[in-house]
Amino acid sequence: MRDLTAQVTSSLLQFPEVTVEALGEDEITLDSALCGKFSGGRSGLAWLACGPQLEVVNSVTGERLSAYRFSGVNEQPPAVRVVKEFSWQKRTGLLVGLEEAEGSVLCLYDLGTSRVVKAVAFSGRVTAIEPISNDGGASVSTRHLHQSLRWLFGVAAVATDVGHVLLVDLCLDDLSCSQNEVEASGKLQVASGVHIPSGIPQRREAVTREGRHLCFQLRSPSGTAVSTLCYISRSNQLVVGFSDGYLSLGNMKTLKRAHYTQLGGGRIPVCALTFQEPENDLQNCCYLWAVQSTQQSEGNAVNLHLLQLAFGGRKCLASGEVMYEDFTCCVKLFSLDLSGGIFPWRGQTSNTKFLSCQTIEKFCNHADREDNINEVISPDTSVSIFSWQVNTYGQEKPSVHLGVFDINRWYHAQMPESPGPEEFFHDCPYFALWSLDPVISMTSPNLILDILVHERSLSRGVPPSYPPPEQFFNPSTYNFDVTCLLSSGVVHMTCTGFQKETLKLLKKSGPLISEAIRDSYSRCLVAGLLSPRLVDVQPSSLSQEEQLEAVLSAAVQTGSLEVLTGCIKHWTSEEQPSSAVNLRFVLEWTWNKVICTKDELDQICVPLFDGSCNFIDPQTLQSLQHCQLLLSNLSTVLNCFLTEARELTEKGFSDLTNKQLVTSLIFLYAQVVIWFCRSSLLPEGLDDHMHLSRPFYNYPLIQSYYMGHREKLEHLSRGKWDSDCLMIDGMVSQLGEEVEKLWRRDEGGTGKYPPVSLHALLDLYLLESIEESDKHAITIYLLLDIIHFFPSKTETLLVSFLTAFAIPWGLVKLIRGFWLLDHNDYENSLALLFHPATLKTVSWQHMRIIQSLMCQGEHRRALRYMQMMKPSMSSSSEVRLFLTVLLSNRCMVEAWGLLQQHTTKLNIEELLKHMYEICQEMGLMEDLLKLPFTDTEKECLEKFLQTKSGIQNHEFLLVHHLQHANYIPALQLNQSMKANLMNGRDPRLRERAVARNSLLDQYIKILPTVQRKLAVERAKPYRLPSSVLREVPRPKPLSTATRQANAGNVHTRASLITKVLSRFKEAWLGNKTTNFSEYKKLLDLVVRPGPSHSVAQNETQQQPPCEASTSFVASSPPRSNTHRSSSQNSLPRASELNVLETPLVVKVTEDSAVTA
Hints:
Radius of gyration: 46 Å
Number of strands: 31
Structural class: alpha+beta
Strand order of the largest sheet: 1-28-27-26-25
Shape: elongated
Largest sheet: 5 strands, mixed
Strand content: 15-25%
Number of helices: 35
Distance between the termini: 46 Å
């Protein structure tokens, strides 16, 4: 057995002086022995007693919580003998057994008030107490007890030095009358005829009126003292241990003895008992540890016995607890002598003292299982922990040991009767031993009273590989925290397993690991940290590089990254020739590990996407988690390279950045795949439509909805609106052409939403040009569709995704608003988009939202959105859209103001024409003509109305002329309209013409005579005179003198500055070419040591972004080192990015899936 030593993690946390003084005073004056124990419950208490003094302290800090000094009837004070934690009615207390001169007293002590609330006197010396029930009456919690006991309220088993075992009624239903140890109730009333439960209530009431407590005699006095009691709730048995080594099991349902036997250690008292249940025992067996020890003498005997309790069956109660039924037999299967047989090489043992025992069980969460709800669940982890102290001849200080027994590994080892000596020299597969000597060295001469292992701290750590090697399951791999209770305080320690100890040594070696490769490899091999394929390979047959790679793999797989990061920091800081080689080796190994992990991840994921499996087994899920953990650790190593590198070439920095980017993207991809597996969305089965008990991706149904919706929008648009106004289509188009190509790749893909499979969706996370928040947004939208088309419409799926990836609620509200808009729930959609916590929408989103509402006839809601959101307008198309919204809601004045606010010399004609057309279409020309016009606006309106055919447009133009006192153009227009009317036969047009002519006649009458004559004559057609063409000579200027122009260049100050700058540029380019040839040989080195000042951060800031940001989220945070400049877009794709590609998935047919 390996030497595993605990490490002290705290100083001695001493008890308060008042506690130490109170205990020490009685120890001197009354010659009483100090005793103390951890309560073992969830309250985290420890108690100490000496004589009549009881002190209760915090087991973590040593702080005093409660104290009480018991008084006796006569002058001689009582002595505290037994203490057990007891809770009732949301109160925490202690059951205290006091020994007096003429008998004993059972006290119920309330920690909240620090006083005794119940006290019962009985004959004999109390030796053991065990709580049975803290409830009473016809409750579910007591139905496993005998019917007579169900009439009692609170039951405790009390044992005496003459073998008497009583079941005492604590009368918790009546706490009104206060009792203390002095005013204890008289002798217990032993009820006879317990098999006649009908008379128990009357007898209990009569006894209570007399001030006594009712009790049942489970065992009559035999003369042999009872040394310990233990109630096993899972088997409903009370185990009684005697001072002569005998053991008795009593059934609490029948109140009969079920078994009575003597342990193999002889007539040695049974001092401790603990129950242990294995994992999924098909024979319905559980186990009981019995410890025999001569605690009260200077003997040398501590024996452990494991007894098998066999039952006919077991069931799950309504409370969720397991109950074993139909006890059949009890057999001793394993024993262990702790007196000295384990360590014969350490010298002869003079005394062995047993300290404590406890059992720790852990149940895995099986909430995702679809088994029967009444299935009995057993603990996945079940270990019993023992601690004892050994005094050896010739040594001043004792040794303290802690042993861990794993019953599931004992099953795996074929259940041996006792461990052989050779198993303790090597690694025992089911028993591990730790030395607690450091606490003795620090706290001597204080006595160790008890030792407690904290249940939550027990863990094995991270397995080095999947499936883990056999050594990983041995108890020597456990890590846990320990607290020691001493006479003056508490001390905390931690016990680490052999694997963790090995990793600590690797961390300490740091950069020297390359010089001690063989030793590090051997340690990792023995600890089971290496790959299972290396177990049978001789270390001598491997090169040093192969051994170093195996050690680095162990460090990365177990999360001991300090091994690699320490080496990187050391090698980058020193200027040694070998440092560059070492750094290059580690970098290449890290990148190769990323590639191998990605290949492994692809192999695991293919069956999840191709329909070849319909459920995911735990081993596959563990393999996915293992890949995720590896990628996380490898990403940390690459980040360390980026942070610590002192000098990087441009190519080296680009390669290293790409490697880190690729690793982080694959890590995110693995995270999302694992979430989809845990949510039962993966694997994609061929018969998902048959499994309505869980949500699934129903692509045909979702695709049918969106195809129909797009056709509907196409019909509603009527060529007037852009029918491509679905928000999800806008979200996808904003991500670029890569998404469209990706979604066309798989068979049946259209390049549009929804993707043809979850494989196509999840591959989105491997695109380096898209922000993470945008990828999550598409996934959230798809989850909303899955929830919508799934009958139960559970929201837990979405909440789980948001929690797993820490997605802000603002983004969720935004995407849900888009989804509701695409599903025609306009009111709820706008309510979410208007919510102050929602992420602010950007320009293209405003346009799509308004177009979608207008296309579907929701003009008022479009206007409401515009007024609430107040989107900015940066282009003519946006202004035209907002003008249309205002005019569609007949907001003429607002539209006219918006137009005048956003017109320029370049777009004024375009915007005016658009407004006039909308007004004409909406029948708003009359309102338009009431507005004031500028000259340009009048000119555009006249041109618009002149170019439009139809008598109504000419009439609007006529009214416009008359409104602006343009009588002559009005008369001319009316004259032309008269000419056109001659050919028309419509009587209504003739009536309108008569009215129009009458109106103009009235205008003519009020004109001055000259203007009237001019207007009438101009309205008449004129005959142009015939023109005569005459040729005349070109006239000559009176004085001109022609000169030849100078052909030379014009010299200016600007041309001089340009020449000087061009000379500087030529000189700079010449120097750059020369310098490049000098360091051209160093381009192949990615990392090399350099000066002490770090420029990695400056390099990072000076680098252009790696990829174009396509985020459609307004407040999406920029991702560092992930944007590509426009000059780099023309460069070929980096080779590192090829790792992001996933294999093509081909859906298997139903027949081939069944065959597989």
